[in-house]
Write a structure and sequence with these properties.
- The protein has about 160 residues and is an alpha+beta fold.
- The chain has a single domain, classed as Aminopeptidase (3-Layer(aba) Sandwich), CATH 3.40.630.30.
- It is built from four helices and seven strands; from the N terminus they run E-H-H-E-E-E-H-E-H-E-E.
- A seven-stranded mixed beta sheet has the order 1-2-3-4-5-7-6, with helices on both faces.
- Strand 6 and strand 7 form a beta hairpin.
- The longest helix has 17 residues.
- It is globular and about 40 Å long.
- It starts with a strand and ends with a strand.
- It comes from Bacteroides reticulotermitis.
- This is N-acetyltransferase domain-containing protein.
Amino acid sequence: MYIRPTEKTDLKRIMEIYDFARAFMQENGNPNQWIDGYPSEEFMLQEIIANHSFVCENEQGELVGTFCFIIGEDPTYRKIENGKWLNDNPYGTLHRIASNGRQKGLFHHCIEWCFKCCGNIRVDTHQDNVVMQSALTKDGFKECGIIYTTNGTPRIAYQKSL
């Protein structure tokens, strides 16, 4: 699998991947995350321009996944309730990881790529997203507490440090 920065020409494909991921979450007991068209095309275009968006291509060059990775402080992570972060070292944040459902191991491959960029990663997920919670735990992330997104909704926060 190959990971590269998302290009503007990838926008249509990544939006299709997010549509698939939304349907997958709804079918798997998570109907309240990524609702109302989130992430929007406009939002993702901003992420592309900011160089925070990445795509995963399989060996045939097909886009099979997408995610956002940002190194630096995430304002929503400043306050954590019912726990604490593993450390206060500089970190990268993984957001909006999604696949088209046709590539096994995509999550782990993305995590490995992120750790090559930064050895300390934080991520959060919706309380109903048991698929993501399981993947994070399986990959060695530790549950740290609860953070709140910019719209005020709670998320379970995780961290892993090499």
